[in-house]
């Protein structure tokens, strides 16, 4: 009888964990590698995306070896990751600046500029909140991207796409192919929270180039396949499907059974969230 398995990968604020499970949810193998956040200045937080790439593959290798499964029986790989985190990538697919993660606060410097832009567009902060689902706060990515535009203009100009955290995990396995996840675009403060669609007009009001935002797919869609290089480093089979994935908070909330009105949960990691379902 042929067995089938899946691999889940989680990239958090402190490291990367890979787990191999059977289709009943039994854990067969795990692998963990630290990928620590650094704090180069007061209020700043950064993570090296190239380190995350290598640690992801190392953790996957450990999980696969511990599981003792045949890699040909692995149906696919998907990931969850820290939310509200971005890394600039150039047109060659190289990361040209560290991750700016959710707990970085340098972007507070641009809040007054953003308030002025909202006012010129005829919106209050409350109007903007109801549309985007986020107030002016550090754990959305647009303020960080605007901060780079104003303070690191060379980096901003070289940036082809600002990609999110699980796209870095996806690219670790595929060697390049990726999509940002549909639910995760709400963290950008450039999307309609009700329809989960980008609003390029939101970028225009801040003078931000919307073309720097990546293509989006649903969480369950295929993003690519394991590359020959990743297969060599991990023992995985080249061509194994890799799926888009989603943010850690979304995945944890669904995993806790929050899928109907009146149900909620508390998710606690390096940070904490209170989440509820609403139809």
What's this model, at a glance?
Helices cover 31% and strands 24% of the residues. It has 279 residues and is an alpha/beta fold. The strands form six sheets. Strands 3-2-1-4-13 form a five-stranded mixed beta sheet. It has a two-stranded antiparallel ribbon with strand order 5-6. It has a two-stranded parallel ribbon with strand order 7-10.
- Helix/strand/pairing class, anyone? alpha/beta
Task: Summarize the helix and strand pattern as letters.
Answer: EEEHEEHHHHEHEEEHEEHEEHEE
- Share of residues in strands: 15-25%
Q: Give the CA-based shape.
A: globular
Give the CA-CA distance, first to last residue: 42 Å
Taking pLDDT < 50 over at least 5 consecutive residues as the criterion, the unreliable ranges are none
User: Portion of residues in helices?
Assistant: 25-40%
Secondary structure layout plus pairing:
Elements: E1 5-11, E2 15-22, E3 27-34, H1 49-67, E4 74-81, E5 86-89, H2 111-120, H3 125-132, H4 141-151, H5 153-158, E6 161-164, H6 165-174, E7 180-181, E8 191-192, E9 197-198, H7 200-206, E10 216-217, E11 222-225, H8 228-234, E12 241-243, E13 246-247, H9 248-255, E14 264-268, E15 272-276
Parallel strand pairs: 1-4, 4-13, 7-10
Antiparallel strand pairs: 1-2, 2-3, 5-6, 8-9, 11-12, 14-15
Helix pairs in contact: 1-6
């Amino acid at each position: 009888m042929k067995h089938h398995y899946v691999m889940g990968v989680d990239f958090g604020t402190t490291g990367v964990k890979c787990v191999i499970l059977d289709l009943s949810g039994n854990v067969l193998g795990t692998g963990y590698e630290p990928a620590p956040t650094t704090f180069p200045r007061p209020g700043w937080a950064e993570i090296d995306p190239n380190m995350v790439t290598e640690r992801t593959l190392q953790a996957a290798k450990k999980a696969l070896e511990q599981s003792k499964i045949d890699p040909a029986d692995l149906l696919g790989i998907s990931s969850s990751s820290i939310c509200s985190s971005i890394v600039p990538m150039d047109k060659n697919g190289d990361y040209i600046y560290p991750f700016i993660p959710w707990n970085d606060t340098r972007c507070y410097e641009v809040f007054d500029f953003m308030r002025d832009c909202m006012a010129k567009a005829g919106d209050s902060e409350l109007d903007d909140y109801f549309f985007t689902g986020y107030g002016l706060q550090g754990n959305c990515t647009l303020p960080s991207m605007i901060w780079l535009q104003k303070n690191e203009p060379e980096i901003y100009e070289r940036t082809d796409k600002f990609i999110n955290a699980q796209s870095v995990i996806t690219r670790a396995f595929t060697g390049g192919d990726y999509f940002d996840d549909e639910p995760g675009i709400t963290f950008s403060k450039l999307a309609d929270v009700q329809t989960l669609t980008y609003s390029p007009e939101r970028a225009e009001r801040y003078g931000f180039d919307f073309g720097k935002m990546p293509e989006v797919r649903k969480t369950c869609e295929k993003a690519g396949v394991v590359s020959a290089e990743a297969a060599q480093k991990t023992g995985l089979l080249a061509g194994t499907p890799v799926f888009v994935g989603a943010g850690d908070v979304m995945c944890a909330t669904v995993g806790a059974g929050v899928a109907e009105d009146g149900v909620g949960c508390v998710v606690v990691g390096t940070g904490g969230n209170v989440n509820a379902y609403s139809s």
